[in-house]
Inverse folding.
């Protein structure tokens, strides 16, 4: 079996696996009492991760260089990174809702790479001179893994915003989710509730301690959703905290490689500029969490905006303009 045939089988199998896994996670979220769906979803993501790695490995053997030099290869490396970080996040939080937001993104990337890119862009080709360096694996792989990690963390923040929609939630305690959530509903009057001046529902995130200061029906958010919000916020912060150092290492290694290839550490190339913007966006997120003590929805909005910024940095720059990184251009 030649590489083209094997590649076609593997990328289509990857798409099919991720599509079925997405349905499993969505059905599990809609009907949480159905047993084994969580285990099936995890198994599906693990198999998809293995299929993606096999595809990349086959291209590596056939081409003789690390398979991350064109858009097709980088998209599948991104899929591998997203599925890997999904498994990491799921092992941290043990919550099936993680898969409801990560599988659609991984499946969409796979569909775009396998079904939309022209055949000419899916073929292995000799490296351009600037890529014939040992820095290829170091810089590009770390950058792509940081993109995947930050995407997963941002998607979890978006899920947190969806779960807590319409509620002004603040986390009282540490930045890693060991404090308690407090929900405020400004539409409720103190006189109608006959409660304390600040009717609220508090939940101790890492213990079994619950303090009810107002009826659940008045608040509009169940204890189950409150616990889920706690898990999503904690996971989002921890995954972004993992992706940010990877992004930092990737940018530094890229500067060293640029100096070796072009004689300058920084050229304000569009890709470099947007990498810096991405770094500043997630630095602001971590700063607000750690230094300013922001919790709940406000930093989640920053992370959600970061999801868009990562996509602009990774793909949008290649669509909107050329530069020193133009080997990824496909228009």
């Amino acid at each position: 079996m030649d590489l083209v045939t094997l590649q076609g089988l593997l990328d289509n199998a990857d798409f099919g696996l991720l599509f079925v896994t997405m349905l499993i996670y969505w059905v599990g979220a809609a009907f949480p009492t159905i047993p084994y769906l969580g285990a099936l979803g995890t198994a599906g993501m693990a198999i998809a991760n293995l299929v993606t790695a096999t595809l990349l490995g086959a291209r590596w053997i056939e081409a003789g260089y690390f398979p991350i030099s064109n858009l097709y290869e980088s998209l599948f490396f991104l899929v591998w990174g997203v599925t890997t970080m999904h498994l990491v996040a799921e092992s941290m939080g043990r919550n099936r809702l993680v898969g409801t937001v990560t599988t659609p993104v991984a499946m969409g990337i796979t569909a775009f790479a396998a079904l939309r890119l022209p055949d000419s862009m899916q073929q292995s080709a000799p490296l351009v001179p600037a890529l014939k360096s040992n820095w290829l694996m170091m810089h590009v792989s770390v950058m792509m893994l940081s993109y995947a990690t930050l995407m997963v963390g941002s998607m979890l923040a978006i899920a947190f915003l969806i779960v807590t929609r319409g509620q002004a939630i603040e986390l009282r305690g540490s930045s890693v989710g060991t404090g308690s959530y407090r929900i405020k509903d400004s539409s409720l009057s103190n006189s109608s509730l006959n409660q304390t001046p600040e009717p609220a529902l508090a939940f101790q995130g890492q213990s079994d301690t619950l303090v009810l200061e107002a009826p659940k029906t008045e608040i509009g958010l169940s204890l189950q959703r409150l616990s889920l919000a706690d898990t999503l916020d904690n996971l989002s912060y921890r995954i972004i905290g993992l992706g940010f150092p990877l992004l930092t290492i990737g940018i530094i290694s890229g500067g060293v490689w640029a100096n070796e290839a072009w004689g300058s550490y920084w050229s304000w190339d569009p890709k470099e500029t947007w990498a810096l913007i991405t770094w500043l966006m997630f630095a602001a997120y971590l700063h607000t969490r750690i230094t300013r003590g922001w919790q709940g929805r406000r930093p989640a909005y920053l992370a959600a905006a970061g999801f868009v910024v990562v996509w602009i940095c990774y793909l949008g720059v290649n669509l909107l303009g050329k530069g020193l990184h133009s080997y990824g251009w496909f228009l």
Notes: Residues 173-220, 327-331 have pLDDT under 50 and may be disordered. The first strand starts at residue 168 and ends at 172.
